[in-house]
Amino acid sequence: MDRHDGDPMESKQMIVIIAVVVVVIAAVGAYFAFSGGEDEPGEVDDGRDSLTITEYPSRLLVLGNTNCDDYLNTSDISYLEGVIEDADGGVVDYQTNYMCDANYDGVVDSADVDYLTAMVNENWGDGDGDVRYVHYVNVDLEVASYDMTTEKWVITIISPPLDDMLILNPDLVIGFDNRITTNQRSPYEAIYDIDSMYDVGLAATPDVETIVAAADSKNGDVTVFIGSKMYYGGTLETDLADYPGIQIVRLPTWEVGDSIEGLLTIGFLLGESENAYAYLEWYEGVCELVQDTVATVPESERPAVAVFYPHRGSTGGELLGPMSGEVQNLALLGIVDVGTEYFDDIGMSTQSDRVDMTYEVLATLIDDYDLDVLIGAVGAPFQVNEDSAGQMQGTIAGMQYYYEFWEDRISDLLPSLDDYCVTGFTFLSGISECVGQLLMGYYLYPDYFSEEMVIEVVNELCDIMGIGDVWNFDSMNLIYDPGDPREILNGA
Predict the structure, then answer these.
(1) Residue 434 has what pLDDT?
(2) Tell me, what's the pLDDT at 44?
(3) HEC string for the chain
(4) Which residues have CB under 8 Å from 483's CB, separation 6+?
(5) Smallest Cα–Cα separation from 31: which of 140, 155, 169?
(6) pTM for the full model?
(7) Which sign does the torsion angle of CA 111, 114, 117, 118 carry?
């Protein structure tokens, strides 16, 4: 649950051109450029040559989700048949309808109807009427492919994918990176005997030999559930090309505030959709509660807010911008999003999710953007091992340290602010983001949100993730704001 401390987030706006590589590919890998899928259609205009993807097309990112809703079912078959029937001159516009290319051969035609029908019926295999590969849009806005016939054992890289697996099926996880085995052990040690799991080392450069050893222990099959190629194991596909049972799956789990996309898509690939949809129903219920409550808050009571990491960057802090999950989730509370305004003005809106926070930057936010509320986000409530500064961010002492560190640096600016607090980024970026919205709604609008709302939802989340016996509202530190009645400190 402690997430991406210090890891840049990926821009949703990057444009990826899918290049067609004419090669013979043995079995599976994460980035296949199929010359014709499993059913070579003959000579056709290959729409993949000019395909550009600039945003996630839906929440279920599987090609074949033709109507771009949250499900793959017979409605998608009907939609696909309609697209083919209505095509101008019998040729479907590929750029507009690439999600209809279920077999990912570069053309949308009747072969996709057959392929999609097999997908809907879950006919996975190599026999007549079966299909083997599912093609999907990944976190880097590339089309990737997954062999559905392999065993579904999982290694996760950084904590957001592991959080997804706690919801989908924690028993499939056989290893993770060394953040989980060291300073982010909680709450996962409530689920796993961490020291007995495979430790693949650094998230940026996972150890290939350990991944291979993990796969060998499971008949050669393992799925590495990971984030963007730019920041996490960028050479894994090449390094593991000789191991067809090892699949690299890169899906959004926190990047740019997109978490449901990763949950639904990996749930589909692993055959765990039932649990994904059960969580989605709960998640949307919390989001609806938040939005209904925010709608009752008058515009005059909605503050100008900025959020920063008080423990990162060359100056000791980083202001978060519009590409961060924290900012995107706070924006849903109807605030004046000062961070995004500032990033727009300095030309950073599509280039980065953060810039160094300095005294001068904060003074500018107050003087020129009328900042009301400053929120610091650390690894609370779950980071209870020491960080590089010797602080356990999820403890009261750790939250106090970072609060006072910045309080001293900006003491003469604080009287100009209405509020300043330190909270945790755990619930503000990732699959539990709906809880972060509720928590910050309570802090920003205490006359409209109640602590009872927070208690109920936090405990429900912990029960869903299977950690409720150890982690619950009564053991968590959620808001540090000394002397303020909204402060929530329940742990050591």
Answers:
(1) 96
(2) 55
(3) CCCCCCCCCCCCCCCEECCCCCCCCCCCCCCCCCCCCCCCCCCCCCHHHHCEECCCCCCCCECCCCCCCCCCCHHHHHHHHHHHHCCHHHCCCHHHHHHHCCCCCCCCCHHHHHHHHHHHCCCECCCCCCECEEEEECCCCCEEEEECCCCCCEEECCHHHHHHHHHHCHHHEEEECHHHHCCCCCCHHHCCCHHHCEECCCCCCCCHHHHHHHHHCCCCCEEEEECCCCCCCCCHHHHCCCCCCEEEEECCCCHHHCCHHHHHHHHHHHCCHHHHHHHHHHHHHHHHHHHHHHCCCCHHHCCEEEEEECCCCCCCCEEECCCCHHHHHHHCCCCEEHHHHHHHHCCCCCCCCEEECCHHHHHHHHHHHCCCEEEEEECCCCCCCCCCCCCCCCCHHHHHHHHHHHHHHCCCCHHHCCEEEEEECCCCCCCCHHHHHHHHHHHHCCCCCCHHHHHHHHHHHHHHCCCCCCCCHHHCEEEECCCCCCCEECCC
(4) none
(5) 140
(6) 0.88
(7) negative
CA distances 161 to 21, 114, 236, 403, Å, are: 29, 32, 17, 29
The string over 290-312, giving b where at least 16 C-beta atoms fall within 10 Å of a residue's C-beta and e elsewhere, is: beebbeebeeeebbbbbbbbbbb
Encoding tokens for residue 247?
């699949």
Omega within 30 of 0 (cis) for the link into 381: yes
* CA–CA dist 94, 105 (Å, integer): 11
Q: Within the chain, which residues score under 70 in pLDDT?
A: 1-44, 349-351
Strand pairing partners for 225? 156, 249
Q: How far apart are CA 415 and CA 111, in angstroms?
A: 67
pLDDT in tens, 387-406: 889 999 999 999 999 999 99
Question: For 346-382, how does the pLDDT look when each residue is reduced to its tens digit (9 = 90+)?
Answer: 998 666 788 999 999 999 999 999 999 999 999 999 9
Query: Which residues, in sequence order, are CB contacts of 128 under 8 Å at separation 6+?
Result: none
Is the peptide bond between 187 and the residue preceding it cis, with omega within 30 degrees of 0?
A: yes
**How far, in Å, CA of 86 to CA of 302, rounded?**
48
CB 49 within 8 A of CB 17: no
Q: How many CA atoms, within 13 angstroms, populate the side-chain half-sphere of residue 454?
A: 25
Handedness of CA 108, 113, 119, 124 (dihedral sign): negative
pLDDT the model gives residue 334: 98
Phi-psi region of 487 (alpha: psi -120 to 50; beta: other; left: phi over 0): beta
Residue 25 CA to residue 21 CA, distance in Å, equals: 10
Cα end-to-end span (Å), the chain: 19
Residue type, 20: V
pLDDT computed for residue 90 by the predictor? 87
Counting beta carbons within 10 angstroms of the beta carbon of residue 469, is it exposed (0 to 12), middle (13 to 18) or buried (19 or more)? Answer: exposed
